[in-house]
C-alpha cells in the first residue's frame, strides 16, 4: 500500500474516532485538558501529578467538574496510546473522598412554566419589532418543542414540514441521536396566548427567510444575518425577555429552563410520561421523573392538608 493510501486511511481513522464523540463532549474535553496544562500539568502524565491537581482544586471546583476533567485526561491518554494514570484505585478513592467532603448541591435551571411564558409572549407582542418577533418565535418553539439550545439554533427552514394541525420539525441529529437517524417533533397550533406555529410564521415572513437558519442575529439596522444564532445567546435572550416582562421571581434562568418548564407544565396539564419524554427527546426515564417529582412538590405535599385546614 502506498504512503498516500496509508495517509488517507489514517485521516479517515481520525475522522471516524472524532465522529464517535459529540461536539459538545470534545469541546468539554479540550477545555479540561487546557485547564490541567495551565495549572502546570504535563501530558502524558502520572498518578502523583493528577492527585496533586485534584487536591489543589478540591475546594474551588465542584466535584462533578473535577470528575469530568479527570475523564478528559484519561481519554487523552487512551487515544494517544499511553498508559492511563487515572484508573488507579487510589486516585479514584481520593476523588470519591472529595465528592463526600466537598460535594455541593447541583445548580439547576429554574423551570419556566407555561404561565410565565405567556407573560413574556404578551410583552413581546406589545414591542412589535423584528427582534421581538424572532425572540417570540424562538422561545415558543424552544418551549413547546422541548429543544436543547444547540438544536434550536441549528434548525433550518428545510427541517420544517407544515401540516393542517401544526408543524413537524425534523432534527437531523441531536444529543440522543448521534448517528443521525433523525427525530421528528410535532408542534400543534395554539388557541390561547401562545401559538408557536403562528409566532414562527410571522417571524419567517417578516424577516423574509426563504432558506437557511430559522433563527439568526439582527444588527442595529434591522438586517438579519445569514448565520444562525450562537447557542449561548439563547440564555441571554430568555433572561432579557423575562426581566422586561416582569418575570423576576425566577432566579436562575437558562435555555434549559424551557425544557424543564415544558415537562413540568405538560405534566400538570395531564400529559403522559411517555409523551413528555418523547417531546423532549430524553433518553432516560429518571430525568423526566425528576421534573415530574419537582412539579408535585407543592401539589402533592404532606403538609397541604394541615396548612389549608381552617382554625376552630
UniProtKB/TrEMBL annotation:
One of its GO terms (biological process) is DNA integration. PROSITE patterns: CB, TYR_RECOMBINASE. Transmembrane segments: none annotated. The keyword DNA-binding applies. Residues 107-304 form the Tyr recombinase domain. GO terms for molecular function: DNA binding. Gene3D superfamilies: 1.10.150.130, Intergrase catalytic core. Keywords: DNA integration, DNA recombination, DNA-binding. Residues 7-81 form the Core-binding (CB) domain. This is Site-specific integrase. It comes from Undibacterium jejuense.
Amino acid at each position: 500500500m502506498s504512503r498516500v493510501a496509508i495517509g488517507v486511511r489514517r485521516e479517515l481513522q481520525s475522522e471516524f474516532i472524532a465522529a464517535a464523540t459529540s461536539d459538545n463532549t470534545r469541546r468539554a474535553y479540550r477545555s479540561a485538558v487546557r485547564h490541567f496544562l495551565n495549572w502546570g500539568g504535563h501530558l502524558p502524565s502520572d498518578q502523583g501529578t493528577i492527585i496533586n491537581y485534584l487536591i489543589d482544586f478540591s475546594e474551588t471546583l465542584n466535584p462533578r467538574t473535577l470528575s469530568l476533567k479527570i475523564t478528559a485526561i484519561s481519554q487523552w491518554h487512551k487515544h494517544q496510546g499511553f498508559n492511563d494514570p487515572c484508573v488507579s484505585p487510589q486516585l479514584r478513592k481520593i476523588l470519591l473522598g472529595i465528592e463526600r467532603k466537598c460535594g455541593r448541591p447541583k445548580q439547576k435551571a429554574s423551570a419556566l412554566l407555561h404561565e410565565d411564558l405567556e407573560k413574556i409572549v404578551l410583552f413581546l407582542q406589545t414591542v412589535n419589532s423584528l427582534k421581538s418577533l424572532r425572540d417570540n418565535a424562538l422561545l415558543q418553539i424552544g418551549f413547546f418543542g422541548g429543544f436543547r439550545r444547540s438544536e434550536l439554533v441549528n434548525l433550518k427552514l428545510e427541517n420544517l414540514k407544515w401540516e393542517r394541525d401544526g408543524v413537524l420539525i425534523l432534527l437531523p441529529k441531536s444529543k440522543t441521536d448521534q448517528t443521525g437517524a433523525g427525530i421528528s417533533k410535532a408542534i400543534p397550533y395554539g388557541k390561547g396566548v401562545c401559538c408557536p406555529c403562528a409566532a414562527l410564521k410571522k417571524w419567517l415572513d417578516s424577516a423574509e427567510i426563504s432558506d437557511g437558519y430559522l433563527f439568526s442575529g439582527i444588527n442595529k439596522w434591522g438586517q438579519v444575518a445569514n448565520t444562525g444564532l450562537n447557542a449561548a445567546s439563547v440564555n441571554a435572550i430568555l433572561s432579557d425577555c423575562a426581566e422586561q416582562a416582569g418575570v423576576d421571581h425566577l432566579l436562575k434562568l437558562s435555555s434549559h429552563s424551557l425544557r424543564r418548564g415544558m415537562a413540568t407544565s405538560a405534566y400538570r396539564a395531564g400529559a403522559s410520561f411517555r409523551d413528555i419524554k418523547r417531546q423532549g427527546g430524553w433518553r432516560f426515564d429518571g430525568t423526566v421523573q425528576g421534573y415530574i417529582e419537582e412539579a408535585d412538590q407543592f401539589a402533592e405535599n404532606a403538609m397541604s392538608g394541615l396548612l389549608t385546614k381552617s382554625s376552630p
